[in-house]
């Protein structure tokens, strides 16, 4: 196989990784479990009764960040693969 083929395979793999990470980000949840601080007060929060809204957004943001990095790598590899095809055909 040529270098371009390996780069295309790498692009496809990282694209699948990115898609998987985005599904994980969508499904990520953090349970709402308020605990009093040392003074006995409960911290403020936003919840629907089951999930902690703010902490869920933080967790989803982390997964989204990794998915975006993976998508960027996939796009870069795809671009390199296309450039190699143009260079090889010249």
Structure description:
By secondary structure, the chain is mainly alpha-helical. Helix 1 runs antiparallel to helix 2. The model has no long low-confidence stretch (mean pLDDT 92). Helices cover 69% and strands 0% of the residues.
What descriptive keywords fit this protein?
single chain; 90 residues; mainly alpha; 2 helices
Identify low-pLDDT runs.
none
* SSE class: mainly alpha
Specify the overall morphology. rod-shaped
Taken as a percent bin, the fraction of beta residues is under 5%
How many strands? Answer: 0
Number of helices: 2
Radius of gyration: 21 Å
Helicity range: 55-70%
- The whole-number mean of residue pLDDT values reads 92
Order of helices and strands: HH
Terminal Cα span: 19 Å
**Sheet having the most strands:** none
Please describe the topology of this protein.
Elements: H1 3-27, H2 53-89
Helix pairs in contact: 1-2
């Amino acid at each position: 196989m040529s270098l371009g083929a390996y780069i295309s395979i790498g692009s496809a793999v990282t694209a699948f990784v990115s898609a998987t990470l985005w599904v994980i980000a969508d499904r990520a949840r953090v349970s709402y479990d308020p605990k009093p601080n040392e003074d006995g007060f409960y911290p403020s929060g936003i919840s629907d009764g089951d999930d902690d809204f703010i902490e869920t957004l933080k967790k989803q943001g982390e997964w989204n960040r990794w998915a975006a990095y993976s998508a960027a790598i996939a796009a870069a590899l795809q671009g390199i693969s296309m450039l190699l095809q143009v260079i090889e055909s010249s």
